[in-house]
Design goal:
The protein is of the alpha/beta class. The protein has helices at about 5-10, 20, 35-40, 70-80, 100-110, 125-135, 150-155, 175-190, 190-200; strands at about 25-30, 45-50, 85, 115, 140-145, 160-165. It has one domain: 3-Layer(aba) Sandwich (Rossmann fold). The structure holds magnesium ion (MG).
Length: about 200
Amino acid sequence: MAQWFNIDFLRNSLSLFNHDLMLPDRYVRDINEINWEDLKKDKGIEGVIFDADNTLTVYEGNSVHHSIIKSFEKSKKIYGSDKLVILSNYTGNGMEGSRERRIEEIKANLGIRVVASSKKKPAIQVYNIAVCYIGTQSSATAMIGDTMGIDILGARKAGLGYTVLVDPLDPQSDPLYLKFARHVERFWYRKELARISNTQ
Ligand SMILES: [Mg+2]
């Protein structure tokens, strides 16, 4: 099924108006602003779920963006690779086997596991699968992603303990529907996001 046809995303679109589900606990520019020790010690977070596209890699990329390599490696050191996992909605670029190939490349390059599920964020089930992968309680697991209506919404609905919204690493690389969704949600919540980012 094509990447743009995300029925779960469409079904949850009305949640745009639900502040409790859309707003992250933190809003930062990128993961360089996350103090992994504090996240573990002060927030009680024992495992982290990462979005891939435009959170760790550029869209359809298979390696960590050069600007955040140090922070990503630090997260592996603090948590251990088995307590980190990637949850991506990427379904392939139309070429047969492209999704499986990218999953293998990401696993090899980043050194952490990737959830392979036909369900997509923000469906609660995929977060539950990710939590099972890393063996943590939902309440002790954080989600880090660049899209409120996909990454953050699903994480809040699944009861994850902490959510962090990042700005996209390379917004121009996103497909049109994601550019549009990001523009709408960040405009709609501009005051709340400004307040969240100012209180850190
Ligand atoms: Mg993303």
